[in-house]
């Protein structure tokens, strides 16, 4: 027998539950019908530039987290579309217009975006691994923290784009336009940037280990603390670039233009700088140990306290260069031009200066122990307090062509306990007097040392 409930409220709720379930089921059913229609619309719009309702349908599919793998959006107009977190794996977006579109955290792995327009699009943290973006327009796009590993960006326009902390290792950026782009802390291991435009680009702390940058334009680029170890920068333009504290160990910089560049404290050990232009470059305290600088132009360069030990500088030009306190121990300076160079307190121990031009060079306090000065030009060079103990192939005529040669040190011995060379005052003075008495070695014209007054 039916009994009347003592609490009508509970009875009402009990009766509503089936109705609610029916309503929810109906909503889901209607939603599925809508999404199925949206999918059909997208498929029917394939390869069409304009298609009514496509953007709205696509946004609903993305919101529902539908898989859009391999969908065809070639030539599609998707400007300003919100596609955040969309799964567009292997999607076709050839010449698609995604101007100002939102693609944050989107999956575009292996997507085909040839000639696509992504101007000002937001692709931060997006996955573009192995994506094809050749000739794409990414002007001012946001690609910060994006994954572009192995992506093809050949000839892409990335001018003023944000690529900070992006993964671009093994990416193809050949001939790409990256002028004024932000690549701060980006990972570009073995990336191909040959012939790329990187003028005024920010590459501070970027990792370009073993990257290809041959003939790239990096004029005025910021490469402070960047890692360019073993990178290929042959014929690259780095004029006025900032390479302060950069790592260029074993890098190939043959025929590169580094004029007026800032390389203070940079590591260029074992680097190839043959025929490179380093005119007026700042190499203060730089490490150039075992570097190849054959025929390089270092005129007016600042090499103060630089380490050039065992460096190869044959036929290099160092006219008016500042090498004060520089370490040139065991360096090969054969036939080099050191005219008017500042070598104050420089270490030239065991250096090869055969046929070198040291005319008017400032060698006060320089250490030339065991150096080879065969046929070196010392005309009006300042030898005040220079250490010439055990110097090789130095003739009385060469000595007398210099200035303040009477104050230099020629005779001495090595003190094992003090681990340094000690001047033998008496032997040294006797040697100087002997040189003075050698009239055959007197210069035909008086040496003008007025420049040192």
| Portion of residues within helices | 10-25%
Query: Based on helices, strands and strand pairing, what is the structural class?
Result: little secondary structure
State the total count of DSSP E strands: 2
The major pleated sheet works out as:
2 strands, antiparallel
- Low-confidence runs: 1-5
Estimated radius of gyration: 35 Å
Please tell me what the overall shape is: rod-shaped
Distance between the termini: 129 Å
Strand content: under 5%
Instruction: Provide the spatial order of strands within the biggest beta sheet.
Output: 1-2
Mean pLDDT: 94
**Count of runs of 4 or more consecutive helical residues:** 4
Order of helices and strands: HHHEEH
Please tell me about this protein's structure:
- This protein is 14% helix and 2% strand.
- The protein has 453 residues and is low in regular secondary structure.
- Strand 1 and strand 2 form a beta hairpin.
List the helices and strands and how they pair.
Blueprint: H1 8-44, H2 54-63, H3 396-400, E1 412-415, E2 420-423, H4 425-437
Antiparallel strand pairs: 1-2
Helix pairs in contact: 1-2
Which short descriptors sum up this protein?
rod-shaped; 2% strand; 4 helices; little secondary structure; 453 residues
What's this model, at a glance?
The chain is largely without helices or strands. The chain has helices at 8-44, 54-63, 396-400, 425-437, and strands at residues 412-415, 420-423. A hairpin with a 4-residue loop joins strand 1 and strand 2.
